């Protein structure tokens, strides 16, 4: 249903370094680099960062976040660790999130511009 997503960033190179490290844990790589945008993906760019030089940090109260699928709990753990090592902050450590309909394992991070990104997997058992 969704072909690709994008987030605004105030410093393209800083954000590209952050996302290159963070998304690698989920098997995504930098596929396209243009003067004001960088695309990450597996076979084609499905996650884009776009330069917005005068962008204010994303307000925490916005409630917006993007969730990316991981294959395993190890990938979720690696995503979280890579994001923190690359300058992001934790918005929820890796772990099981019980829900009324489904049990899932997720981690939440905030990039240097305030974009909230989640990695999720649905372990069996």
Automatic annotation (TrEMBL):
Domain of life: Bacteria
Protein's recorded name: VOC family protein
Taxonomic lineage of the native organism: Bacteria, Pseudomonadati, Pseudomonadota, Alphaproteobacteria, Hyphomicrobiales
Residues annotated as domain VOC: 1-122
InterPro entries: Glyas_Bleomycin-R_OHBP_Dase, Glyas_Fos-R_dOase_dom, VOC_core
PANTHER family: BLR7706 PROTEIN, GLYOXALASE FAMILY PROTEIN (AFU_ORTHOLOGUE AFUA_5G14830)
Pfam families: Glyoxalase (PF00903)
Segments forming a coiled coil: none
């Amino acid at each position: 249903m969704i072909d690709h997503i994008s987030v605004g960033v105030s410093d393209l190179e800083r954000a590209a370094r952050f996302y290159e490290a963070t998304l690698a844990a989920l098997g995504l790589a930098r596929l396209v680099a243009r003067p004001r945008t960088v695309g990450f993906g597996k076979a084609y760019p499905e996650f884009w960062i776009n330069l917005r030089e005068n962008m204010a940090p994303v307000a925490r109260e916005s409630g917006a976040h993007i969730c990316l699928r991981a294959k395993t709990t190890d990938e979720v753990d690696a995503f979280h660790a890579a994001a923190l090592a690359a300058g992001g902050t934790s918005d929820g450590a890796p772990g099981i999130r019980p829900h009324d309909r489904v049990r899932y394992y997720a981690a939440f991070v905030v990039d240097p511009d305030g974009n909230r990104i989640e990695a999720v997997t649905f372990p069996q058992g």
